[in-house]
């Protein structure tokens, strides 16, 4: 049996972040192809027909009309155990997407070479910065015409505020894209399209730079220009240093095309060679302590997501735990810190695409789904011996706000109970007008889907059909300082969250920035 240290060092737990359509699903599928999990790619269609891989969960759940949240899957690649956490992008974007990121040790950020850094990527990147999660960047769709690589590097640095260090450099672009130059040894990697398109691995030929000759898709002039660019990068580009990457001071950049598989292998190899294995993370410090819990300690972990109704027949709720330390063994008794109760974690499962397999053991970095018969809540710490609690998960600034009320006004009690419970599960955040504890709370979310799930569950589980009315706010902040002396802009509103922390709701980011300038004695925080 492998030792605990061996198991930890061969784990890579990561999430892919991107704006919808940048190619996250396609890249995930290619990782399955390269790891041998699937024999041919192309099962995962794009948005038009998602069928397999991670998103297959979502489509299954959608078909059944139940909640859609991020999932995890595990498989082997180059001797490592890979855990991919799925962070839904499209209309499924929600607070769960952010919370799932907290369970990742690293992130691959996918950028569409024609579109550059887009809004959702910016938001998710900010969440990575908050937790110090190291980011590998993949510039995708190089087989399409896009921005120049130099412009893209500049855009990453300026928009995201992190130095970018190209690990390889594209040979041509659009129809002329034929591979990448590995900057470590200055070798040109030429890829040959197979008859099967991107369904199979392409052939790769490595040629040292000084032996490369022009070809039908690269003239002598173009080859010289590329060599000049590489020389310029050597002199003026950001150097790469693994420690800087691990400490969020640089992002290594890879170019490629997930669709044709060109340049995906160097990225996957970096995941194994550069990305960190689970460690005692600073972001996981126990609350109120500066002493990290070593990964080799006894078993401990925390709940980062609850997913209700995965099986409508059983109305079950699955709690997803990230293991932070020690070995998990089946039928283990654990302590829930918040309640002090001893629990047996029921029916732990490992998640591989659509299949759930029963789990015998698991290690730091792994995600296990347990049937939540124990009242586990988001952020709960569980461990063998107890005595500590991991830092609470950050709450992210909601951007959508609504007033919700029962169609039948006689159902006040049921809706109050339902909303409290669903908010505790993290379905939505509840916000009240400042110092008003009687009126119906507002519901707040980072994605529209959260409202749909809330309404669906209030009706199904609490028997309360509801009406939802959107409110004209688009961002919010937590307020530090005296609320009574805060100068409120015209369209803004003072509010409080469920823990009675003062908040301000704004109709635009412009208004928020204005309020910041007008209230230098107060602080406005984007997360709590
Ligand atoms: P997402 O999960 O980030 O939302 O993106 P997804 O992988 O679904 O890709 C979005 C679209 O972009 C898909 O096309 C996909 O085929 C395409 N795509 C992904 N990577 C590349 C690439 O490297 N090059 C090119 N040219 N296209 C790429 P679609 O038309 O929406 O779906 P489909 O019908 O082609 O499957």
How would you describe what is shown here?
The protein is α+β, with helices and mostly antiparallel strands. It folds into three domains: 243 residues, P-loop containing nucleotide triphosphate hydrolases (Rossmann fold), CATH 3.40.50.300; 110 residues, Beta Barrel (Elongation Factor Tu (Ef-tu), domain 3); 126 residues, Alpha-Beta Plaits (2-Layer Sandwich). The protein has twelve helices and 29 strands. The strands form five sheets. It has an eight-stranded antiparallel β-sheet. It has an eight-stranded antiparallel β-sheet with strand order 25-22-24-23-27-28-26-29. A seven-stranded mixed β-sheet has the order 2-3-1-4-5-11-6, with helices on both faces. A hairpin with an 8-residue loop joins β12 and β13. It starts with a helix and ends with a strand. Bound molecules: guanosine-5',3'-tetraphosphate. Guanosine-5',3'-tetraphosphate binds next to α2.
């Amino acid at each position: 049996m492998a030792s605990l240290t061996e198991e930890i060092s061969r784990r890579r737990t990561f999430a892919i972040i991107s704006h919808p359509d940048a190619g996250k699903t396609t890249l995930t599928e290619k990782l399955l192809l390269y790891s041998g999990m699937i024999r041919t790619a192309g099962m995962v269609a794009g948005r038009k027909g998602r069928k397999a891989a991670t998103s297959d969960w979502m489509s299954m759940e959608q078909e059944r009309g139940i909640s859609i949240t991020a999932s995890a899957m595990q498989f082997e690649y180059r001797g490592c155990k890979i855990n991919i956490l799925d962070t839904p992008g499209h209309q499924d974007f929600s607070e769960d997407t952010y919370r799932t990121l907290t369970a990742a040790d690293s992130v691959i950020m996918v950028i569409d070479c024609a579109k550059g850094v887009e809004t959702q990527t910016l938001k998710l990147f900010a969440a990575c910065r908050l937790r110090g999660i190291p980011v590998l960047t993949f510039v995708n769709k190089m087989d399409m015409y896009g921005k120049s690589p130099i412009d893209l590097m500049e855009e990453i640095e300026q928009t995201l505020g992190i130095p970018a260090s190209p690990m390889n450099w594209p040979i041509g672009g659009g129809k002329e894209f034929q591979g990448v130059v590995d900057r470590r040894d200055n070798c040109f990697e030429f890829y040959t399209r197979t008859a099967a398109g991107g369904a199979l691995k392409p052939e790769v030929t490595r040629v040292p730079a000084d032996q490369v000759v022009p070809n039908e898709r690269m003239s002598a002039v173009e080859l010289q220009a590329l060599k000049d660019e590489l020389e310029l990068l050597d002199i003026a580009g950001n150097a790469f240093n693994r420690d800087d990457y691990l400490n969020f001071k640089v992002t290594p950049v890879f170019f490629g095309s997930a669709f044709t598989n060109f340049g995906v292998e160097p990225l996957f190899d970096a995941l194994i060679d550069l990305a960190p294995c689970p460690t005692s993370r600073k972001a996981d410090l126990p609350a109120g302590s500066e002493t990290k819990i070593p990964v080799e300690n006894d078993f401990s972990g925390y709940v980062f997501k609850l997913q209700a109704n995965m099986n409508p027949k059983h109305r079950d709720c699955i709690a997803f735990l990230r293991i932070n330390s020690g070995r998990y063994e089946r039928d283990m008794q654990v302590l829930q810190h918040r309640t002090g109760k001893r629990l047996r974690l029921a029916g732990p499962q490992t998640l591989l695409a659509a299949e759930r397999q029963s789990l015998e053991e698991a290690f730091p970095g792994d995600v296990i789904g347990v049937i939540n018969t124990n009242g586990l809540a988001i952020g709960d710490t569980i461990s063998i011996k107890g005595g500590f609690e991991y830092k609470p998960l950050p709450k992210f600034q909601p951007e959508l706000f609504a007033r919700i009320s029962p169609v039948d006004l006689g159902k006040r009690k049921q809706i109050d109970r339902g909303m409290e419970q669903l908010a505790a599960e993290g379905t939505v955040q509840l916000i009240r007008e400042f110092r008003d504890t009687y009126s119906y709370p507002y519901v707040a979310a980072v994605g529209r889907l959260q409202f749909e799930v809330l309404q669906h569950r209030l009706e199904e589980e609490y028997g309360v059909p509801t009406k939802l009315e959107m409110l004209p706010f688009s961002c919010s902040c937590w307020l530090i300082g005296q609320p009574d002396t805060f100068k409120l802009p015209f369209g803004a509103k003072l509010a409080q969250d469920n823990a009675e922390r003062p908040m301000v709701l704004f109709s635009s980011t412009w208004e928020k920035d204005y309020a910041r300038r007008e209230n230098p004695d107060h602080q406005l925080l984007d997360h709590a």
